[in-house]
Amino acid sequence: MAEQRYGQRRRDPLPEETDAWQALVTAARRTVADGLVVGTSGNVSVRVGDTVLVTPSGVPYDRLTPDDVTGVDLTGRQVLGTLVPTSELPMHLAVYGTTDARAVVHTHAVHATAVSTLVLELPSVHYMAGALGGPVRVAPYAPYGTPELAEHVLRALEGRTGCLLRNHGTLTYGTTLDLAYDRTAQLEWMCSVWLKASSVPHHTPSLLTEAQLTDATTRLRTYGQPS
Questions:
Q1: Minimal CA–CA distance to 113: which of 35, 197, 224?
Q2: Residue 5 has pLDDT above 50, yes or no
Q3: Measured in whole angstroms, how far is the alpha carbon of residue 46 from the centre of its chain?
Q4: What's the angle, vertex CA 55, arms to CA 160 and CA 47, rounded to 5?
Q5: Long-range contacts, 192-196 (Cβ 8 Å, 24+)
Q6: Nearest Cα to 31, choosing from 1, 61, 52?
Q7: Are 10 and 79 in contact, with CB atoms under 8 Å apart?
Q8: pLDDT for 225
Q9: Least confident of 90-94, 96-100, 159-163, 216-220
Q10: Comparing C-alpha atoms, which of 91, 78, 75, 14 is closest to residue 48?
Q11: Helices 147-156 & 89-98, crossing angle to 10 degrees?
Q12: What is the pTM of this model?
């Protein structure tokens, strides 16, 4: 992929950045394997200290190697690698600048993208919406890679750890890469459930009440093993 490269390598990655890059590449490849993205759509990032490792623009994930590590500081200045960072970098940096995120996953998942064209908020068809903080909002459309899109996403994420992007896809974040990825998978699954249930003729899906979803959100905060 020599044609994708530009400039000079800024610095060598630290050991923890090398490990994080490998985890990032594994997660990015998993988005393809799980059908959450097609080709080079979507992107993944991980924060290590004040450095954000991010998938590069237009490079198929199966071609990424340890030497392709790509990283920027919190202002967007490239500090690692020679590949151009993802065009969605403004959106990733906006999330890191306003939340406790340590990883961000953005996909073009089919069911979630379809839902983003139909509603302003994902109907509360399942209690796992509580794992994202409550009803999942749809951020208004804006061209990819723009400050406007980043602003829309931040508003949709208020009090949430995931949202839909109108006519675009999904974004989730977490304090770990595994958590961010799991939230993406859950969001796509919930969208699939709602689309299938709402497509049954002469039937309307039952939805959780606000009180039921609030209760689920509270319960999910203590679900699983202690930190």
A1: 35
A2: no
A3: 11
A4: 55
A5: 192/111, 193/125, 193/126, 194/115, 194/122, 194/123, 194/125, 195/111, 195/114, 195/115
A6: 61
A7: yes
A8: 82
A9: 216-220
A10: 14
A11: 40
A12: 0.93
Across the chain, mean pLDDT equals 94
Q: Where are the alpha helices (DSSP H) in 50-209?
A: 89-98, 110-116, 147-156, 177-198
Q: Which of 37, 79, 47, 31 is nearest to 173 (CA)?
A: 47
Tokens at residue 167, please? 């006519």
Task: Give CA–CA dist 52/111, Å, rounded.
Answer: 29
Residue 178 to residue 102: CA distance in whole angstroms: 10
SS3 state at 81: coil
How is residue 45 written in tokens?
A: 């990032």
- State the Cα–Cα distance between residues 52 and 121, nearest whole angstrom: 30
pLDDT classification of 227: cutoffs 50, 70, 90: low
> What residue has token string 């890191």?
96
108 touches 37 (CB < 8 A)? yes
Token pair, residue 207, equals 């939805």
Which residues face 85 on adjacent strands?
Answer: 56
| CA 64 to each of CA 14, 25, 26, 54, 70: distance values in angstroms, whole numbers, following the listed order | 18, 7, 10, 12, 10
CB count within 10 Å of CB 137 equals: 22
Residue numbers annotated as active site: 88
**pLDDT tens per residue across span 145-200:** 999 999 999 999 999 999 999 999 999 999 999 999 999 999 999 999 999 999 99
Structure letter (DSSP) for residue 2? G
